[in-house]
Each structure stands twice: as C-alpha cells, then as structure tokens.
Design brief:
The protein has about 140 residues and is of the alpha+beta class. It is built from four helices and four strands; from the N terminus they run E-H-H-H-E-E-H-E. It has a four-stranded antiparallel β-sheet with strand order 2-3-1-4. Strand 2 and strand 3 form a beta hairpin. Helix 2 runs antiparallel to helix 4. It is elongated, with a radius of gyration of 17 Å. The relative contact order is 0.28.
Length: about 140
C-alpha cells in the first residue's frame, strides 16, 4: 500500500502533503471520445435539450474549476486557464480539455474532470435519441516547468 500516494502505511486514505514542494507551472490535457450513431452526430446542434456542443464546453470548464469538490482527496488549485474544445468527427464528438496552474501539484484531475463532464453532458443531451452512445476518457499530456 505504501506506493499509493493517497494511502498511508496503515492503509488509511489521506490527502498528500505538498507543502514542501515548490510551486511550478503545470499543464495537463485530457481527451474524451463520445461515440454515437451518424444520425445523432447530424443533430448535435438541434437536439430537444438544445445545442449539445456549446453546453458541453461550458459544463467542462465549470467542472475543471470545481474538481476538488468532486474528487475527495484532490487539492483545490488556482487555475490560470481551463479550456474545452469539441470537434465533431465521423463516429461522434472528440473533446480536448486542458488545464493550467502554477502550484505545488498537477492539474491532470482538472483536465480529466473537464473532459469527463463535457462527455457526460453530450451524452445527457443526446440520450433521448441515441441509447447506444458510449465514451472513453484519457490523459494525453502532463507537464511541469
């Protein structure tokens, strides 16, 4: 258990102490792909609940800013930038989310949360017309300078 940063020697969960680490410029990028039927792709701007892409973009950015409220042991970070871009591709919607900060710990959870919530929003907005949608989320970049 000792190799897990959020678990102490006795197996109890804990928030990692990053107090001794110097603040560094950090950036992370996550990607999600929401797969759906071609008919659903064609209707993304005109769904019963409204424009899925614009709504998902805003939802993702808002989620990045609230990541520490959603992930129990995640440090609250002062984000200097959060962005969510959505692109319609043949099999659905590709989402790229990025987060940046100058802090003592990374922003990969913020980027992953932004991509996940954007994907969930697309799913929620289109579920009435496509019951077979699915999505996956991955971290594609994590840097510090």
């Amino acid at each position: 258990m000792s190799e897990l940063s959020h678990v102490d020697a006795s197996g109890a969960v804990r928030m990692v102490d990053v107090g001794a680490k110097p603040p560094q410029r950090r950036r992370a990028v996550a990607r999600a792909l929401v797969r759906m039927a071609p008919e659903t792709v064609a209707r993304l701007g005109d769904l019963p609940k409204g424009d899925a892409l614009t709504t998902a973009q805003l939802a993702g950015i808002m989620a990045a800013k609230r990541t520490s409220e959603l992930i129990p042991l995640c440090h609250p970070l002062p984000l200097s930038h959060a962005a969510v871009e959505l692109r319609v591709v043949g099999q659905g919607v590709e989402i790229t989310a990025s987060a940046e900060t100058t802090a003592q710990t990374g922003v990969e959870m913020e980027a992953l949360t932004a991509a996940s919530v954007a994907a969930l929003t697309v799913y929620d907005m289109a579920k009435a017309i496509d019951k077979a949608m699915s999505f996956e989320v991955e971290l594609v970049e994590k840097t510090k300078a």
